[in-house]
Amino acid sequence: MTRILLLGGTTEASQLARALAEAGAEAIFSYAGRTAAPVAQPLPTRVGGFGGAAGLEAFLRDEGITHVVDATHPFAAGMSRNAAEACDGANVPLCALERAPWQAGPGDDWAHVPDIASAVAALPEASARVFLAIGKQTLDAFAAKPQHHYLLRLVDAPQAPLPLSDTAVEIARGPFTLDGDLALLQRHAIDLIVAKNAGGTGARAKLDAARALGLRVILIDRPEVRARQVFATMAEVMDWLPHPARLGV
Ligand SMILES: NC(=O)c1ccc[n+]([C@@H]2O[C@H](COP(=O)([O-])OP(=O)(O)OC[C@H]3O[C@@H](n4cnc5c(N)ncnc54)[C@H](OP(=O)(O)O)[C@@H]3O)[C@@H](O)[C@H]2O)c1
């Protein structure tokens, strides 16, 4: 019997969950548990880490998983690394559903940097109003540049004091729109954006808004993930899985 583990946390993972549910597939959806109220899925859902690659390998065996689809965020490299190692160990086929990185077009002013530390270094010395669109996990690195005002957009209100002193916090969950992000950047008089090159449509609006307003973007490149079978579309993943008519049978 085909039994799929879908590692989620992205819009694309939620779309794939819907397709699998409609196909009647036997599948488990997995969330890291980064948000207080994750989007409900039409599949049985578990939340939280597996306990590293070894924990995931044990999970695959215990649950009789036959296929793993890694549809995590492109910056969730630890999870992707563990998935590859666990699938090797348990001899379970793995594929990734990965959206293409964003590419600059005419009118974009993007500075590409390899990681968070380089993004901090790329900020100007003179005080600026920065939209720090990187989630909440790596904010502390920006404490090295306390001269800036930082706008943060978070899914949940912070439960602990933030590591940055001069901040404004907007609570919102994507997908975001161009009009909404234009208004956000203007309301906060933003000079500069720091973002991760996540790709996809849900978080793209801030880049289009930056172009419209002539703002510079410091764009953090994706972390390296080891070679694996990668698909760019949900249809390709569905084709890779055993035929839908046999899913769950
Ligand atoms: N994870 C997401 O849903 C998500 C969503 C939006 C953006 N991001 C971006 O990715 C960056 C890194 O995120 P991250 O810390 O979650 O990734 P990570 O560094 O790859 O994952 C750290 C650990 O979280 C657990 N984990 C991650 N995804 C999981 C899933 N789908 N199901 C079960 N456990 C999962 C695993 O714990 P164990 O080792 O215990 O198994 C994993 O080793 C963030 O800063 C953000 O930019 C992530």
- Secondary structure class reads alpha/beta
**Through-space gap between termini:** 6 Å
| Number of H/I helices | 7
Estimated radius of gyration? 19 Å
Name the bound molecules: NADP nicotinamide-adenine-dinucleotide phosphate
Order of helices and strands: EHEEHEHEEHEEEHEHEEH
Please list the strands of the largest sheet in the order they lie side by side.
Answer: 3-2-1-4-5-12
Shape: elongated
**Unreliable segments of 5+ consecutive residues:** none
Query: Tally of extended strands?
Result: 12
Helical proportion?
25-40%
Give the rounded overall mean pLDDT: 96
Strand-residue fraction?
15-25%
**What does the largest sheet look like?**
6 strands, parallel
Can you describe what's shown?
- Helix content is 29%, strand content 21%.
- The protein has seven helices and twelve strands.
- It has helices spanning 11-22, 52-63, 77-90, 116-122, 178-187, 205-213, 234-240, and strands at residues 4-7, 27-31, 45-47, 67-70, 94-97, 110-113, 129-133, 149-154, 167-171, 192-196, 216-220, 230-231.
- It has a six-stranded parallel beta sheet, with helices on both faces. The chain has a six-stranded parallel beta sheet with strand order 6-11-10-7-8-9.
- The longest helix has 14 residues, at 77-90.
- The termini are close together.
- The relative contact order is 0.19.
- It binds NADP nicotinamide-adenine-dinucleotide phosphate.
Walk me through the topology.
Layout: E1 4-7, H1 11-22, E2 27-31, E3 45-47, H2 52-63, E4 67-70, H3 77-90, E5 94-97, E6 110-113, H4 116-122, E7 129-133, E8 149-154, E9 167-171, H5 178-187, E10 192-196, H6 205-213, E11 216-220, E12 230-231, H7 234-240
Parallel strand pairs: 1-2, 1-4, 2-3, 4-5, 5-12, 6-11, 7-8, 7-10, 8-9, 10-11
This protein binds NADP nicotinamide-adenine-dinucleotide phosphate.
